[in-house]
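dumping this here before i forget
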Amino acid sequence: MKNKINYLLMAFMAMALTTGFIACGSDDDDNNTSTQQSNFEKYMSAVETQVKNKKASKGNKKALLLAAFGSTWENAHKTFKSIVSDYESDPAFRDYDVYFAFTSAKCINRSREGEHYASQDFYAPNFWLEAIGRQKYEEIRVQSLHIIPGEEFLRLRDTYVKDFKNNIYNDLDANYLDKVRIFIGGPLMIEEEDVEEVANVLNQEFSKYAQGDNVMAFLGHGNPESKNYGNGNIRYNQLEEALQDKNPNFFVATVDQEDNLLDDLFTRMQEQNKVKEGATMTLHALMCIAGDHAHNDMSGIENGNDSWREFFVNHGFKCQYDGKDDNTSNNCILKGLGDYPSIRAIWKKHTREAAEMFVEEEEE
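structure:
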């Protein structure tokens, strides 16, 4: 017998990444074992109560866990709610109980503190998966709401889901784990073919901002090269190429990908003769939601004099932001990709078409 996992699992990831609910390095503020244990039990109890109540009220045998990086900004939470509602109202998922998780411990902790948003509890995927397993759902689908197959998605797939299947807390029934069907849907651009589909959507939505001398740039996150485990960064380069095949006034850069930062973006614009005095630059986050990077790195709401918007203004572009969320007078569009039904449709396609993980086959 051998394990067959649809997506190529990277063994070193399972060794390098921690288990538990920490997802963003050393930003957990629990400093001793007893506090960590008591918090684990408290969070586990809260999640299990929600799962138990939903299963009892709806009677479904299938669970769907949506997993996003997370955010503490109010309009980002509105986007998350829209995505959950979209899945719940989709006939393809009527037989699923839908749950939602953050993969970032930093966002989880800050949401509890009420930073930028009314205090609210969010939980990491391991709590939801454990609670789902305790209720013995017969099928589990986990859908990444990340953009590229980068660090966060790999942690979701290769740590959280594998730890659940391996019964890391030793409290799930072995017979159940042998029978439960587990699927995982990849991020927005999991495959190169997804890049073209995303480019088509972005061109349809935003071509009006990139006419004549006017330019539009998308701000992605990216992974530092030291954390670019799945070479997910290549999707940003591929997306810019696909977009420029449709409209040469589109550009894509990131806040964290080596050689694809703001200065690199501007260099490419100069090389392509796209720097025109008085032209308009429109900016949009290439992320699930408009969160901290969109508000600060892109628009400069809190970190004034150090944003993409101010950079382009200083280089002769018109790039206005008036502090309002409407797009009528803004060149910084504070929406996430998750706000667009045509983008959500790609994630939902990944959810529907996800292949089963941990399928065993006989040796030939």
